[in-house]
Amino acid sequence: MQCAEKCYAQGIDIKLCDAHKSAIMSPEAIKKLRESRNWSQQQLAEMLGVDQATVSRIERGSEPRGPVKRLLERIMAEPVADSAVSASEGSQ
Fold it and tell me: Is the pLDDT of residue 43 over 70?
């Protein structure tokens, strides 16, 4: 049984599965997702509670840690429609 099948069988969102986190948390994937949602680095930074320079470092390969990493994992796993709501709430 492949990992995705195991995750599905256990009711685990594959985007939050440990085996899939490294792929969706790559610097390139983070930047691509941010851009696909039309977020600036500043908007993502506000959602994460960090400054824009931190998002820039993450997109260049710096490993996010602790609460920032967990929150980024959650944001990355959100469906696009839910993320758009989060982005608009974060900019208010």
Answer: yes
- Domain limits at 57? 24-90
Closest by Cα among 51, 64, 60, 67 to 22? 64
Contact 59, 27 (CB under 8 A): yes
Tell me the pLDDT tens digit for each residue of 12-41: 565 556 555 666 678 998 999 899 999 999
Instruction: Confirm whether 37 is domain-assigned.
Output: yes
Please give the Cα distance from 55 to 37 (Å, whole number): 15
8-state DSSP, 79: -
Overall domain count for the chain: 1
